[in-house]
Design brief:
This protein is of the alpha+beta class and about 240 residues long. The chain is built from ten helices and nine strands. Its EC number is 6.3.3.1.
């Protein structure tokens, strides 16, 4: 998630640090976590240069642990992506997520029983897509005017922050394939659409704002990385908000 955040300004992630805290260190759990972090760093082509492991008896229940981390990226000042070039008529291209990514699990645990969660763990716990390599390649092929990582806050909070004044985004919710986990979620919950699109990524892990002439090239480039993508909306004149229709 951290390296995907770096991408939103056009930055290439260069290193990552982690923080692992627990009551008592269980070596197998710790090793598995570090292996996962190393795999993610390799996928993002960034270095794991260090971190902190803290044992704090009395602070955590047996078997519990806390995991955090951050990434640092670098970008040429002239190549920073800040959304200032976005204009009405640009399109919004959504890149598929693998599922929940790392957001909304508190709500997911309330909606699904423990038995349902265990039964569908392979779907619910799919690793987050790391978009670094495909998006950096795209940035060398076309002009990317804006990038939003759809994390906490969903569509309604993440997309407007990259928009200039007098630009509104209209998203067509029927324009992409929704992952199975979200179909299951929507059958189980009574949450309104607005709450779902504010809490979850709903199958779109990242959006790119580009000129419509670059849509085909973008979709084809992403397919090289086995990532599906769709034109899911457009930029129009209006208040700096997102409308989902």
């Amino acid at each position: 998630m951290s390296v995907n955040d770096c991408l939103c300004s056009g930055a290439k992630p260069i290193f990552f640090l982690d923080y692992f805290a627990c009551g008592k260190l269980e070596e197998k759990v710790w090793n598995d976590v570090i292996k996962g972090i190393v795999k993610g760093c390799k996928e993002a082509s960034c270095a794991l240069i260090g971190g902190e492991t803290a044992e704090m008896p009395g602070m955590y229940k047996e078997g519990d642990y806390d995991l955090a981390g951050f990434a640092v990226g670098i970008v040429d000042r002239k190549k920073i992506i800040d959304g200032k070039k976005i204009t009405p008529g640009d399109i919004v291209l959504g890149i598929a997520s693998s599922g929940f990514h790392s957001n909304g699990y508190s709500l997911v645990r309330k909606i699904f029983t423990k038995e349902e969660f265990k039964k569908n763990s392979s779907l619910f716990l799919k690793p987050t897509h790391i978009y670094v390599k495909p998006v950096l390649e795209l940035s060398n092929l076309i002009e990317i005017k804006g990038i939003a990582h759809i994390t906490g806050g969903g569509f309604y909070d993440n997309i407007p922050r990259i928009m200039p004044k007098n630009c509104k985004v209209v998203i067509k919710r029927a324009s992409w394939e929704m992952p199975e986990v979200y179909k299951m979620l929507m059958k189980k919950t009574v949450l309104r659409d607005e709450e779902l699109f504010r809490t979850f990524n709903m199958g779109i892990g990242m959006i790119l704002v580009i000129n419509k002439k670059n849509a085909d090239k973008t979709v084809k480039t992403l397919l090289k990385y086995k990532l599906k993508s769709w034109v899911i909306g457009e930029v129009v004149k209006g208040e700096r908000i997102v409308e989902i229709i």
